[in-house]
Amino acid sequence: MPAVQRNGRAVPPEKTQESVKESIPSAMTASQGQQRPSPYLLLVYPVLLALGSLWAVISPTAASPPTAPLAPGVTSDLNVPHFHHTNYFAGKRNLVNIYFVKVGWFWTTIAFILLQTTSRPRASIAKKHYIQAGLRYALVTFSWILTTQWCFGPALIDRSFTITGGHCEPHPFNEASLKDAVKLSRVNSGIVCKAYGGNWHGGHDISGHVFILVLSSAFLLYELYIADCHSAHPHVSPQAAAAVAHNMTDEERTAMGGWESETVAKIRIWSRYFLYGVVGLDLWMLMMTAIWFHTWLEKLSGLLIAGSTIWSVFFLGDFLPQWRSIVGGL
Ligand SMILES: CCCCCCCCCCCCCCCC(=O)SCCNC(=O)CCNC(=O)[C@H](O)C(C)(C)COP(=O)(O)OP(=O)(O)OC[C@H]1O[C@@H](n2cnc3c(N)ncnc32)[C@H](O)[C@@H]1OP(=O)(O)O
Q: Separation of 138 CA from ligand 1 center, angstroms?
């Protein structure tokens, strides 16, 4: 049997799958002994929100900018700045807000699809893994739709806004909206109100940002853990995986059950980097939202809806085994 080539070097041909596994450093094959992530990890979110809110109170730079006095008879907070004089992220039109958070479910979906298509669950559980991962995605997406888009009519955040006394009122500097005052008063959705040039004012405004950012980051992190647990190949850090894929022969990569080629390994690694990027931006924007936007209670309500969705999908099965057998998970 001829010697196989590894980066131009000849290596002994008699390596078996077992000997290849043994040659992988133990730190890179840690998945077997991994601890199950605790639901208490979700407490990171209230801590982050509390720190941001505290910073908003005690930091002189986070104080609200001086606002122009309101015109007589105008009660709306219309001078919320699009660009803040002290911090770029305090303005609504910052690029991360426009291109990332405002289309946050798109990025979450892409990160999830990339994770699933580049993970390699063990053959014996592959079908079940994909079905249950799809089901969990459908459940969190349904929660996102009900909360922010449509809940058999207006979304939950719009319903709670109008139930607590909020309404759409004409914008005093927008003549068209002033003419349509009666029509605007019947609008029951924040997006429609703004589209008509009105001002969504007065009620309890559940933070859609806190909701989507918590839901997205927690969902992706727990799915990453599940994908790793179900993986046919050892859990490796992206750097270690690159080194492994680079140094192995083709036979060795196949024997390890997944790192067939350096290109495949790189696609997997970059998919992980992409997921880390989405989660990192989620957490950053959560902190920015905590500092610059909404009241305590509005942030808390966004957090509670996202937190209970995540808990129901990933941890309710601890108490209801039938639920676990349907949605799978941790
Ligand atoms: C091998 C590979 C195969 C691959 C194979 C590929 C297959 C390829 C298939 C692709 C398939 C994709 C399929 C995707 C399918 C989807 O999922 S597409 C869906 C895309 N759409 C989205 O993601 C929309 C997400 N956005 C939302 O849900 C809502 O906008 C949000 C984010 C919840 C926020 O709502 P909101 O009204 O802004 O509410 P809220 O947070 O209370 O904020 C109130 C105000 O404060 C501002 N504010 C609050 N916090 C902040 C802040 N931190 N910074 C700035 N402003 C703030 C807001 O901007 C808002 O201001 P206004 O806009 O009202 O003036």
A: 17
Active site residue 209: yes
What does the alpha-carbon distance between residue 37 and residue 39 come to, in Å, rounded to a whole number? 7
C-alpha 104/C-alpha 58 separation (Å) is: 30
What's the token pair of residue 8? 């131009």
The predicted structure's pLDDT at residue 122: 86
Spans of all domains in the chain:
38-57+87-163+205-238+285-330, 167-201
ipTM: 0.91
Check pocket membership of 209 for ligand 1, CB cut-off 6 A.
yes
Separation between Cα atoms, residue 201 and residue 166, nearest integer Å: 5
Residue ID of nearest Cα to ligand 1 atom 27:
102
pLDDT in tens, 136-180: 999 999 999 999 999 999 999 999 999 999 999 887 766 666 567
Q: How far is the CA of 191 from the centre of ligand 1 (A)?
A: 12
